[in-house]
């Protein structure tokens, strides 16, 4: 799992399914299933979900899409994020007894008897990471989980987790405008032989110029609103000009930058339409010269605003300094 581009997952990208369960506004299950199945047909076989996406809706959707295709996909499942009936965030729970309960329900919703990668969505400050990883290791030995992953944790937590059981993969946000993992996290992954699935490659649609619609939670995020949004729109317009000059779509430029910058790792993209899927599959790594041109247009740190609101930023172990 150090490099997701295995025989069972030959493409250079993975499919993140969160957006198919309402995170960015209204969705259509039939279209989502068509996208998942088309992605599998094109060799995009690593599917990322969370048991809290749509409060279980996402797993049920994936089950419908992969029926008869389970042997063709790898399922990555996050757990631990709690929801209230009004869909608000209710904290994190990664206790051993809780995660084994979460997995039991995930297996039923997904219609499978194992998941390929199981990972806590966030670090639980009340539970030592050793306890969480040890409990998942029990599930590995029992055959319910194939590999253990992590999400949005920093170097100290990664080291502690890896001492309990081999870690296959870290899920972390990374894009032209979110580059902090380059400092300490990526070097540590290389040292320990851990792979990474990189989400937020399009910065939640910011880099692609995706419009905000009714029910879209991005309307409340720092990079999209107020003066930050106006300043960032100017930077994004410059990137779009560069993409047009090269004959690329803005999405292909952003994906190509990540592929060129971090060739060991796998971008995880929230493709919700067949057009988005086609664009992403056609993306190719940018050359060193083009990487430099992109970074001249949008230098590191140029984007205004944090990637999450302040309250959520405070929950990210990966942001600790």
UniProtKB/TrEMBL annotation:
Q: Which GO terms describe its molecular function?
A: oxidoreductase activity
Q: Which SUPFAM superfamilies match?
A: NAD(P)-linked oxidoreductase
GO CC terms of this entry? cytoplasm
Top-level taxon of origin: Bacteria
Please report the organism this UniProt entry assigns to the protein: Nannocystis pusilla
Protein name, per record: Aldo/keto reductase
Alphabetic keyword roster: Oxidoreductase
Can you give the residue ranges of the NADP-dependent oxidoreductase domain? 12-297
The record's PANTHER family line, in alphabetical order, gives: AFLATOXIN B1 ALDEHYDE REDUCTASE, ALDO-KETO REDUCTASE YAKC [NADP(+)]
């Amino acid at each position: 799992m150090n490099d997701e581009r295995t025989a069972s997952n030959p493409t250079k990208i993975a499919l993140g399914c969160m957006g198919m369960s309402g995170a960015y506004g209204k969705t259509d299950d039939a279209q989502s299933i068509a996208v998942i199945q088309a992605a599998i047909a094109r060799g995009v076989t690593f599917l990322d979900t969370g048991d809290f996406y749509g409060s279980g809706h996402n797993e049920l959707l994936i089950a419908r899409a992969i029926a008869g295709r389970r042997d063709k996909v790898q399922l990555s499942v996050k757990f631990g994020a709690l929801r209230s009936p009004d869909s608000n965030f209710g904290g994190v729970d990664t206790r051993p007894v809780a995660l084994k309960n979460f997995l039991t329900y995930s297996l039923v919703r997904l219609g499978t008897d194992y998941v390929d990668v199981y990972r806590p969505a966030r670090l639980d400050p009340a539970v030592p990471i050793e306890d969480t990883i040890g409990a998942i290791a029990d599930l590995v030995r029992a055959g319910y989980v194939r590999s253990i992953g992590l999400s949005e944790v920093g170097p100290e937590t990664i080291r502690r987790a890896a001492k309990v059981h081999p870690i296959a993969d870290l899920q972390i946000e990374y894009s032209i405008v979110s580059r902090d993992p380059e400092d300490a996290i990526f070097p540590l992954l290389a040292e320990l032989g851990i792979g990474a699935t990189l989400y937020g490659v399009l910065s939640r649609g910011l880099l692609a110029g995706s419009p905000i619609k009714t029910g879209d939670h991005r309307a409340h995020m720092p990079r999209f609103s107020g003066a930050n949004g106006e300043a960032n729109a100017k930077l994004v317009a410059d990137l779009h000009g560069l993409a047009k000059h090269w004959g690329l779509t803005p999405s292909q430029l952003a994906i190509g930058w990540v592929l060129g910058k971090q060739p060991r790792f796998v971008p995880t993209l929230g493709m919700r339409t067949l057009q988005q899927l086609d664009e992403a599959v056609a993306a190719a790594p940018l050359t060193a010269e083009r990487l430099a041109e992109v970074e001249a247009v949008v230098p590191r740190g140029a984007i205004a605003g944090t990637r999450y609101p302040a309250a959520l930023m405070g929950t990210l172990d990966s942001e600790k300094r």
